[in-house]
Amino acid sequence: MCEQDSSGPPTASVHTTSTVERGSFCLARCTCGWSGPARRSRDLARTDARTHETPG
Questions:
Q1: Which residues contact 28 (CB under 8 A, 6 or more apart)?
Q2: How wide is the angle at C-alpha 18 spanned by C-alphas 49 and 26, nearest 5°?
Q3: Under a CB-based contact definition with an 8 Å cutoff, are residues 50 and 16 in contact?
Q4: Torsional class of 49: left (φ above 0), alpha (ψ -120 to 50), beta (otherwise)
Q5: What would the pLDDT profile of 11-27 be if each residue is shown by its tens digit?
Q6: Which of 26, 35, 37, 38 could be stapled to 45 by a disulfide with Cβ–Cβ 3.0 to 4.6 Å?
């Protein structure tokens, strides 16, 4: 089992997103494991990624 150092202040999770193309579809993905819906519009996939990165 891995132990975490809890001596410092808690840190926010960093979400690094990117877009991936699969055939004629584009989807947003994140390093946390999240994946957005497949979109035909690259702009909508990028919007999904920005929405995921925004806290709250």
A1: 17, 18, 19, 20, 35, 36, 45, 46, 48, 49, 52
A2: 80
A3: no
A4: alpha
A5: 456 889 999 999 999 99
A6: 26
Closest CA to 28 of 11, 40, 45: 45
Query: Which pTM value belongs to this model?
Result: 0.71
Structure tokens given for 37 = 């819906």
**Cβ atoms of residues 42 and 48 within 8 Å:** no
Give the amino acid at 35.
S
